Each structure stands twice: as structure tokens, then as C-alpha cells.
């Protein structure tokens, strides 16, 4: 039976957790060695649930290299699944995540475990189609992925991949924000899209709230960190609600209402609020700034110029993510990890 | 914080000057006109430029054997550098240093350095002097991925941290220490990861992207000037030529450099962004390029025509007084 | 009239007076204050032998304890020297040059020449050298020949408290990198030292004793053995001239040659191991430039070509003594062509 079983994909971004927020905020570092440890914990848990094959994203950032060593030394003793690295060119950039997810989907994986920050999950979301994602945080200010022990994530993913839990209840649908430039969809965000008066993408992170003019969120939790905290502290929106939010922002010295928000780890910023309104899938949101930068999930990604028409649209048809709590609840209720011996 | 048009033009001129300086030396070396060992910085221009845009003459830098870019970005005179590389008396070091030892202390350029890992301790000292003398200056130590594995670098990271020195360690990771991969030679994969062990921020930045380097180092310099201590910045970058001129580079993949030049070139990317943003006109860039090329031509012609040292020069400049 | 202090006190006084005079003078090194970061008292040590004790109390953070990272802090002293300070950095034992020599050899020593005469590197490296404390092979060497070999460095090897103070003040005011060698066994010797600051120029040897039969050239602790030997030989009617080189770079060639031309006999005493040391250097000088004056082969009294041993029996045998110096002079006197 195991021969026919669909493999599980693992995408780990070697670059996450090392950007300028270590300097301008108080973000912690996330070394490659720890990402690799997480993967080995995942493999142990996947093995325990009966997963026999794993497809992993290759990289030149140190994860593959370490993982190969771990597989050679620990794998045989611990009965890990067979790990194959996807054959693909490596560009040492975001394109690698996109390509790996596409190839894994094409190979028919049952689920993809993504280790990274909001940015990595944003990329995975744009390529995963209907394949569910196990979203694990290794990045900086993460809202979309959970800060979850990899072992538990591995058990939950394994139970989904081996078909032992109710698939419809085991995963949940997420919202997205799609960015359209001159009528063409160019990119998407899974948590937030912000319009900033920066002129350049630069080092990507945003830590100057006075430059922000608009913020769009798919959901906003009041205990979140990052730009979505601005929405979360004004008007929380759940992951499942059929709407998102738009916040119009002003430099704090010009605003009648200001908010103190944790926009990055250890960085409390004062932001000026001009207005808050709900957004719905049917209503594309036009951007009125002449030129600037669009930040997706906290990272500057798109530079736009005055002659370009930019719009943002909420979608309710984003990626599926595995609901760990729900899966583990089912596992306990149905005794999925229990064996009885005569 | 936002780059002005003048800033952008200055950055472009610096990057272009470094590129054309190196491209020209590549040709002159092959023609047998340049003596000794020459290590070219082409491909890494965005790093030196992005960092040094934040510095002035009270700030000091230490450099590496691949130092031409750092010198130019820190304001060393083009004619003086070229003459030095050609070994002439009017060179910045009177023909006694050469490519690997160009320095101009009046500009805060404490020397290219032939010893891999030679610079970081010196930068600590420069930062200590700035702190003790209250100049408000900072020190930047440019280090390669090879130098990052030297004990001097690790000791200096520690010293800078315990004394909270206004010192910035810029690791230019171009992937190769001579002909050996940094992945083979370094136990950690990202040198930025080492920073946490020394209790300082460690940041990785795309060294092909002037805007990213400029932004990150701006924050590090600000932090240092405010008295908040050192920062480690790892710039992932590529060099277009070999370790030294004459290196056949058989250790590199076929088309590796060609692909990088075509897709990630820092100057081409800068040109695209600066013009598409409407900040600079293509004609301004072309004009700057023409000026730079003319300046290089002029510097080379002058260097070739300049006087060589005389026999008496051998014995001068050993001591201030002896 | 005279005030007698130890060489240790003379060094401390020179440092204190120069720090008082010039705010850019800083002192740094391992435990130069001692106690940094501890719950106990600050300025606990003043170096392992207490040489810099009390400076921290007078000058506060201009006296800096360093981590045990010779490359970093010696290098930092070099960097600070080209950036406006006058650091006096302590390399606790000269044997530790092994973990920081690049910063002295390839950085400090080279800057002035390599940068076309534009660099000024006013650095002093104070360091302890020499055998006699049963400190064995890694804490007892006489390595000034290795530094003397390097163009761009100045090397000072004082023998008395008077010289130590005057030469150290000169070193601090000098604009070139100076390596200042202090012999462990000389710290406690006492001598007349003026209270006010004074300098002794580099490259001027000291005629410790005038004589006409033979020249004994020595440096550092060996000067005292040479004097003892000369005194003993005087009883036998042999009149020795004793020259203390004081600095090995610059070297006072004229004084050596003048003396050899007068006496026609040369014995050089050097605690360093025998190949390429100061003794060979002085002998080569005399051979080249005073050959015609020589009445006998030159003699060298040095340590043997071995590491410094630990056992007191062996170490006592290792270190040159006055008897060997006297014997060498007698051999020279007896020589018949």
C-alpha cells in the first residue's frame, strides 16, 4: 500500500530570518542549522505516521547539504522516509520556492510543508493550487505560518497525507490579496499589502511607518506582529471572515488618530490613521499614489510609477492550509496513533 | 534617507568608475602593462559604493587585496591610484605599495591589504580612536568570505562587541576564497549567522543591489554613530574576474559569470531602476559614462607617461626618523 | 641627591608621565588594569607582574583591559595609531608574538613605506622577554632579533631603570612603531632615576665602562653580566670597554666600530639563541668595517641553539653568565695569529 501513497513535499527557505530587521528591529536570527534540525524532526514524525517518500526543495544555502549528511547518518537508524531532492535549476532566490512548489504539485504530493516566513508562504501560496500547505514559521514577523514544533507539524501532515483524517475538516481555505498592475495580476499576498512612499525595494523590510499610505489585510489578529497588527488593533478580522480591511494611513504628525503598533519584533511604531473600511472580493481597490512601492506580507516587492495603474483585490480562494489543532484533535478522538496489543 | 537625484548620480558615477577602472586594468594587465598581482573588484561595485556613500573623511575603512573599489568609493584620487598600480612616483603611495596596498589616510582609507584578514583589527583600532577622540567617526572593515574565516576577524568581532565600537564589518561573500568555495571552507553557511555569537546584529543583503546595500549600511552606520555598537553585514555578491588577473578560473561553472553579468549586474540593475523611476534620464547616465571613460583614459595615459621611481627612492620612507 | 627606583617603577612612571602630558596616549593589554568585569576590585593586577598597577586609578578608561586576543588588540593598537592615538600596547610575553605577528610585521612595520611615506604609526609594544624565571620554552625567549630583522620597526632593549624611563618616553613620543623589550629579571634592579620626564635618543649606545684591551658589546640583562666580567678581568689586568647597545634598531654602529678600532678585540654577549641574533649582527659589522683593527677572532657568548628548558639545572646552564663572558675575553686576549 505504501508504494502507491503520495509523497509529502518540503520547502525550506534557506534565506529567511536574516534580513535587515535584525538591525533595525530586534528580530532574532534563524540559522540554517536550526532549519535543518526542524526538517529532521519533521522526517521523524512523518515516518511515524507511515509516510515513505518526501520530495524536498534543493538549495545552495546550506540546507540540502546538511540534510544529506543527516539522512546519511541518522536516516537509516530512524527509519526516515526516502528523501528525494526535486531536480530543478537553483537561482538562490524566490524563484526557487515557486519552481519547487510547482514541481511538487505536478508530482502529486499530498501536502507541502513550508518552512519560512510570511514571504516564503506568499510564494508557496501562489503556486500550490489545491495542495494543502503545512505552514511553519522560521522567518521574522510571521502571521501566516504558525510557530509550531516541527514534530507536531510532521504528525499532522503525515495523517493528512496518509488519508487518515477527514480531509475536508483537516484543512482550511485562506484569503489572498491579488495585485494588478495595468490590469495584469502580478503577485499576491497572504496577509497584507502595504503601499509605501519608498522609491526602491531596497532591503525589502519596512520599518518607516511614516512612509505608509495604505494597508490592505486579508485577516488581522489583535495579537499579531507586523503591519497587520495595525488592522488587528483597530478592527480584528478572522481568517475565515468573507472580507478584509483597508486602512488609510497618514504620517502621525498629520493624523487626528494615531495608533502604537508592533510593526516588527521589538519595534513599536506610531502610525497615523485616516480611515478603516472593509473590502470585499468584488471590489478592486485602486491605488492613488503617484509612485511608490507595494510591500507584500511585510516585504517591499513591487516598485510602481505614476503612469502605472495599480489595484488590489481580495480573493477568498487562496491556498489550503492544514489545521494542526483540528488534525491532532481527530487523532486523539479516533486513536490514530494508538496500537493495541493482545 | 530617500536618495536624491544628486545621490543617485554620485552612486552611478562611483559604480561606473570602479567598473571601468577594473575593465581597463583587465586589458592593461593582459597587455603586460601592469606589474605584479592585481585582483579586480568588477561585479561587486554596489557594495563599496552603497557602504561608502554613508561615510566622510573622518570615517575610516580597511580593505582587502581586492581593494580598488573600496579606494575609489572612499574618495581616493583616480589618477593617483592608476599611477600607483603602474608603479610610478606620482602614485598615491609613490610606487611603493602597488595594487594591493593603495591607501590614502587623508581620505580615511587605511589601505588595501595583502594579508587576508589583516584589516579587521585595524578597523577596531580606528573605531576605538574615533570613540576616544570623540570624532563621531565610524570604521568599516571590508572582509572577504576567505577573510571571514581568519581568527583576526573573529577576534575583532568580539573586541568590537565588548567595547561597543563604532565598527561595521562588511563581509563581501563572492563565493570563492581564491579557488575554494566558501561553502567548503565555512562551517556556517551564512556569515551573518556568526553575528549572534558575538552579540551583534547580523544581516544578509544582496550585494548586487545598490539600494539594498545602501539602506542596510545606512542603518548600521547610524547605529554605530549613535554609540550602539558594531554590526555585521554579509553581502552576497559575485566577482567577474578570477582571484587574480591570470587566474584561468577552471573552478567556476561554464557560463557562470556570463549568466551573472546578464541577469544580476549591479550597474545594469541600477540603470534600469534609476531611469524607470524617472529619477535620472538615460542621457544623464550616458553622459556620466562618457565622463568616466574619458577620466580613465586620461588616468591611464598619465600613468604610463609618469616617471618611474629613481634608485634613491628605494631607501626613503622606511621610518619617520631613524 | 639621587633617587633610586626599580626598573619596574621607572616603566610605570614613564607611562604615567606621558599619559599625563598627552591625552592621546592610551595603555592597553591583557590585565594591564586587571579586574575588568569582575565583582572584585578594579586595577587588581596592573599586569601579571604589577608593572602598570595604579595607571587605571589615575587615568580610568585610557587604561584598557583586553580579552586574550592578541591579534585583535595589537592590531587595534596599530589601527588606533594611524587614527590619532598613541597606544602603548602590552604583549605580555614576547613569545606570544606567534599569535599576533602579522599585525606587527605586515601592518605596523609596513605602513610608512608601503603607503609612500604618508602614514605615521606612533605605536609602542611593550613586551617581557628573557629566561631565568623557570618559565620554560614558551615564556622565556629572547626574540628581539626577529623584530630587529624587520624594516620599519624600532627595537629597544633597556638595561637599567634610568634607560628604561628615558627610552620608553622616547618610544611613546616617537612616530614610528617601537617594540620595547623588558627583561623579567631586571624589573627589580634599582638605579638612579630623575623624577622629571626625559628622553634618551634611539641609536645611541651607552659606554658603560671605558677600557683599552677588549670591547664587550651587550644588551638588556647581558649588560650586567658584561660589567661583572669586566670587573673581574680588571683584577687580572685586562681592561675592558663595555658597550650597552640600548637599541638594536636603529643600531649605533659608530660606537661599536670606534671601540673595536681602539681595542682590536670584540666579544658580543647576547641572550638570544645563536643563529641570526644580535651577536652575529655585531660580529658581521666588525668583520666588514673594522677588519683591519682586529687582533683576534671575534667571540660570541650566547644561549645554545635549543628551546629554553624548564629545569633550573638546565636553565642555569642555558643562560650566559659572567664567567663565560670573562672566559671569552681571556681567549681573545690569548689569541696568537
Report on this structure.
The complex is a heterotrimer of chains A (342), B (322) and C (337). Chain A has 342 residues and is α+β, with helices and mostly antiparallel strands. Chain A is built from ten helices and 18 strands. In chain A, the strands form four sheets. Chain A has a seven-stranded antiparallel beta sheet with strand order 12-13-11-10-9-15-16. Chain A has a five-stranded parallel beta sheet with strand order 3-2-1-4-5, with helices on both faces. Chain A is globular. With 322 residues, chain B is an alpha/beta fold. Chain B has a single domain (5-302), classed as Rossmann fold (3-Layer(aba) Sandwich), CATH 3.40.50. In chain B, 43% of the residues lie in helices and 10% in strands. In chain B, the strands form two sheets. Chain B has a five-stranded parallel beta sheet, with helices on both faces. Chain B is globular, with a radius of gyration of 19 Å. The mean pLDDT of chain B is 96. Chain C has 337 residues and is of the alpha/beta class. Chain C has two domains: 4-192, Thiamin diphosphate (ThDP)-binding fold, Pyr/PP domains (Rossmann fold); 206-334, Rossmann fold. Helix content of chain C is 35%, strand content 19%. The termini of chain C are far apart. The model of chain C has no long low-confidence stretch (mean pLDDT 97). Chains in contact: A-B, B-C. Chains B and C meet through helix 5 and helix 6 of B and helix 3, helix 4 and helix 5 of C.
Topology, pairings included?
The complex is a heterotrimer of chains A (342), B (322) and C (337).
Chain A: E1 8-12, H1 21-24, H2 32-48, E2 53-56, H3 63-73, H4 75-78, E3 82-85, H5 94-106, E4 111-116, H6 118-125, E5 133-137, H7 150-161, H8 167-170, E6 171-173, E7 176-181, E8 184-189, E9 192-196, E10 212-217, H9 228-232, E11 244-250, E12 257-264, E13 267-279, E14 285-286, E15 292-296, E16 299-304, E17 310-315, E18 320-322, H10 324-334
Parallel strand pairs in A: 1-2, 1-4, 2-3, 4-5
Antiparallel strand pairs in A: 6-18, 7-8, 7-17, 9-10, 9-15, 10-11, 11-13, 12-13, 14-17, 15-16
Chain B: H1 5-30, H2 45-52, E1 60-62, H3 68-73, H4 78-85, H5 119-133, E2 139-144, H6 151-162, E3 167-173, E4 176-177, E5 180-181, H7 182-185, E6 202-206, H8 210-225, E7 231-236, H9 256-263, H10 266-276, H11 282-305
Parallel strand pairs in B: 1-2, 2-3, 3-7, 6-7
Antiparallel strand pairs in B: 4-5
Chain C: E1 4-6, H1 7-21, E2 25-29, H2 55-59, E3 63-65, H3 70-81, E4 86-93, H4 101-108, H5 111-114, E5 124-129, H6 144-148, E6 154-156, H7 161-173, E7 178-183, E8 190-192, E9 206-209, E10 214-218, H8 222-235, E11 240-244, E12 247-249, H9 253-263, E13 266-270, H10 278-289, E14 299-302, H11 312-318, H12 322-334
Parallel strand pairs in C: 2-3, 2-4, 4-5, 5-7, 6-7, 10-11, 10-13, 13-14
Antiparallel strand pairs in C: 1-8, 6-12, 9-11
Helix pairs in contact in C: 1-7, 3-4, 8-12, 9-10
Amino acid at each position: 500500500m505504501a508504494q502507491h501513497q503520495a509523497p509529502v513535499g518540503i520547502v525550506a527557505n534557506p534565506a529567511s530570518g536574516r534580513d535587515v530587521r535584525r538591525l533595525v528591529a530586534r528580530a532574532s536570527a534563524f540559522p540554517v542549522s536550526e532549519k535543518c534540525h526542524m526538517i529532521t524532526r519533521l522526517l521523524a514524525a512523518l515516518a511515524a505516521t507511515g509516510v515513505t517518500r518526501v520530495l524536498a526543495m534543493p538549495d545552495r544555502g546550506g540546507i540540502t547539504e546538511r540534510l544529506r549528511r543527516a539522512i546519511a547518518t541518522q536516516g537509516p537508524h530512524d527509519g526516515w522516509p526516502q528523501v528525494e531532492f526535486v531536480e530543478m535549476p537553483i537561482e538562490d532566490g524566490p524563484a526557487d520556492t515557486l519552481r519547487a512548489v510547482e514541481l511538487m504539485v505536478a508530482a502529486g504530493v499530498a501536502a507541502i510543508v513550508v518552512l519560512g516566513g510570511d514571504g516564503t508562504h506568499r510564494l508557496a501560496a501562489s503556486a500550490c493550487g489545491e495542495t494543502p500547505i503545512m505552514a511553519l514559521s522560521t522567518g521574522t514577523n510571521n502571521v501566516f505560518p504558525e510557530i509550531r514544533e516541527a514534530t507536531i507539524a510532521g504528525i499532522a501532515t503525515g495523517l493528512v497525507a496518509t488519508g487518515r483524517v477527514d480531509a475536508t475538516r483537516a484543512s482550511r481555505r485562506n484569503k489572498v490579496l491579488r495585485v494588478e498592475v495595468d490590469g495584469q495580476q502580478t503577485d499576491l499576498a497572504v496577509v497584507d499589502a502595504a503601499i509605501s512612499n519608498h522609491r526602491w525595494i531596497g532591503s525589502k523590510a519596512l520599518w518607516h511607518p511614516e512612509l505608509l499610505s495604505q494597508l490592505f489585510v486579508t485577516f488581522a489578529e489583535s495579537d499579531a506582529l507586523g503591519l497587520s497588527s495595525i488592522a488587528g488593533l483597530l478592527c480584528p478580522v478572522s481568517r475565515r471572515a468573507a472580507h478584509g480591511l483597508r486602512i488609510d494611513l497618514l504620517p502621525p504628525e498629520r493624523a487626528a488618530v494615531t495608533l502604537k503598533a508592533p510593526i516588527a519584533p521589538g519595534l513599536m511604531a506610531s502610525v497615523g490613521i485616516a480611515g478603516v473600511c472593509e473590502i470585499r472580493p468584488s471590489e478592486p481597490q485602486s491605488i492613488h499614489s503617484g509612485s511608490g512601492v507595494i510591500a507584500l506580507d511585510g516585504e517591499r516587492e513591487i516598485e510602481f510609477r505614476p503612469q502605472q495603474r495599480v489595484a488590489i483585490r481580495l480573493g477568498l480562494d487562496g491556498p489550503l492550509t492544514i489545521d494542526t489543532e483540528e488534525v491532532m484533535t481527530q487523532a486523539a478522538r479516533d486513536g490514530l496513533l494508538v496500537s493495541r496489543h493482545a | 534617507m530617500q536618495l536624491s537625484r544628486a545621490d543617485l548620480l554620485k552612486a552611478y558615477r562611483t559604480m561606473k568608475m570602479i567598473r571601468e577602472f577594473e575593465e581597463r586594468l583587465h586589458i592593461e594587465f593582459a597587455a603586460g602593462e601592469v606589474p605584479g598581482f592585481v585582483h579586480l573588484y568588477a561585479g561587486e561595485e554596489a557594495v563599496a559604493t552603497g557602504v561608502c556613500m554613508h561615510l566622510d573623511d573622518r570615517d575610516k575603512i580597511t580593505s582587502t587585496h581586492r581593494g580598488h573599489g573600496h579606494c575609489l568609493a572612499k574618495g581616493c584620487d583616480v589618477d593617483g591610484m592608476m599611477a600607483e598600480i603602474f608603479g610610478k612616483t606620482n602614485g598615491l603611495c609613490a610606487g611603493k605599495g602597488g595594487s594591493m596596498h593603495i591607501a590614502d589616510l587623508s581620505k580615511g582609507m587605511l589601505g588595501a591589504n595583502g594579508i587576508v584578514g589583516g584589516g579587521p583589527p585595524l578597523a577596531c583600532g580606528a573605531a576605538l580612536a574615533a570613540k576616544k577622540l570623540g570624532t563621531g567617526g565610524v570604521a568599516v572593515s571590508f572582509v572577504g568570505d576567505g577573510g571571514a574565516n581568519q581568527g583576526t576577524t573573529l577576534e575583532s568581532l568580539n573586541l568590537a562587541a565588548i567595547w561597543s565600537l563604532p565598527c561595521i564589518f562588511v563581509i563581501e561573500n563572492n563565493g570563492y576564497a581564491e579557488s575554494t568555495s566558501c561553502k567548503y571552507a565555512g562551517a556556517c553557511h551564512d556569515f551573518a549567522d556568526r553575528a549572534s555569537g558575538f552579540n551583534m546584529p547580523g544581516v544578509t543583503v544582496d550585494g548586487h543591489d545598490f539600494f539594498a546595500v545602501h539602506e542596510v549600511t545606512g542603518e548600521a552606520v547610524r547605529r554605530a554613530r549613535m554609540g550602539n555598537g558594531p554590526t555585521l553585514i554579509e553581502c552576497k555578491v559575485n566577482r567577474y574576474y578570477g582571484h587574480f588577473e591570470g587566474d584561468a578560473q577552471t573552478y567556476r561553472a561554464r557560463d557562470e559569470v556570463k549568466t551573472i553579468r546578464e541577469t544580476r549586474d549591479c550597474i545594469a540593475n541600477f540603470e534600469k531602476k534609476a531611469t524607470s523611476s524617472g529619477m535620472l534620464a538615460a542621457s544623464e547616465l550616458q553622459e556620466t559614462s562618457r565622463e568616466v571613460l574619458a577620466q580613465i583614459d586620461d588616468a591611464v595615459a598619465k600613468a604610463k607617461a609618469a616617471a618611474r621611481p629613481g634608485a634613491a627612492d628605494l631607501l626613503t620612507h622606511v621610518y619617520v626618523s631613524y | 641627591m639621587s633617587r633610586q627606583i626599580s626598573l619596574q617603577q621607572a616603566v610605570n612612571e614613564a607611562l604615567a608621565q606621558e599619559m599625563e602630558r598627552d591625552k592621546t596616549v592610551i595603555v592597553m593589554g591583557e590585565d594591564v588594569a586587571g579586574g575588568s568585569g569582575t565583582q572584585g576590585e578594579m586595577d587588581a593586577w596592573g599586569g601579571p607582574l604589577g608593572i602598570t598597577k595604579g595607571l587605571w586609578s589615575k587615568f580610568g578608561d585610557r587604561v584598557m583591559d583586553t580579552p586574550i586576543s592578541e591579534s585583535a588588540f595589537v592590531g587595534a593598537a596599530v589601527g588606533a595609531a594611524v587614527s590619532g592615538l598613541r597606544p602603548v600596547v602590552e604583549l605580555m610575553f614576547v613569545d606570544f608574538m606567534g599569535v599576533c605577528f602579522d599585525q606587527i610585521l605586515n601592518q605596523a612595520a609596513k605602513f610608512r613605506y608601503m603607503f609612500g611615506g604618508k602614514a605615521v604609526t606612533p605605536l609602542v609594544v611593550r613586551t617581557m622577554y628573557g629566561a631565568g624565571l623557570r618559565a620554560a620554552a614558551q615564556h622565556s625567549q629572547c626574540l628581539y632579533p626577529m623584530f630587529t630583522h624587520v624594516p620599519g620597526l624600532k627595537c629597544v632593549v633597556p638595561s637599567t631603570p634610568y634607560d628604561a624611563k628615558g627610552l620608553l618616553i622616547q618610544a611613546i613620543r616617537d612616530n614610528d612603531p617601537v617594540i620595547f623589550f623588558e627583561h623579567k629579571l631586571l624589573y627589580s634592579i634599582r638605579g638612579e632615576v630623575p623624577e622629571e620626564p626625559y628622553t634618551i635618543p634611539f641609536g645611541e649606545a651607552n659606554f658603560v665602562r671605558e677600557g683599552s684591551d677588549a670591547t664587550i658589546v651587550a644588551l638588556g640583562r647581558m649588560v650586567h653580566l658584561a660589567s661583572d666580567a669586566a670587573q673581574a678581568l680588571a683584577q687580572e689586568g685586562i681592561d675592558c670597554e663595555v658597550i650597552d647597545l640600548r637599541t638594536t634598531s636603529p643600531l649605533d654602529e659608530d660606537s661599536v666600530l670606534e671601540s673595536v678600532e681602539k681595542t682590536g678585540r670584540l666579544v658580543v654577549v647576547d641572550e638570544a639563541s645563536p643563529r641570526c641574533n644580535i651577536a652575529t649582527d655585531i660580529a658581521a659589522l666588525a668583520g666588514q668595517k673594522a677588519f683591519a683593527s682586529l687582533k683576534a677572532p671575534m667571540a660570541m657568548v650566547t644561549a645554545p641553539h635549543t628551546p629554553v628548558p624548564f629545569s633550573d639545572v638546565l636553565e642555569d646552564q642555558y643562560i650566559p653568565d659572567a664567567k663565560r663572558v670573562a672566559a671569552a675575553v681571556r681567549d681573545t686576549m690569548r689569541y696568537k695569529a
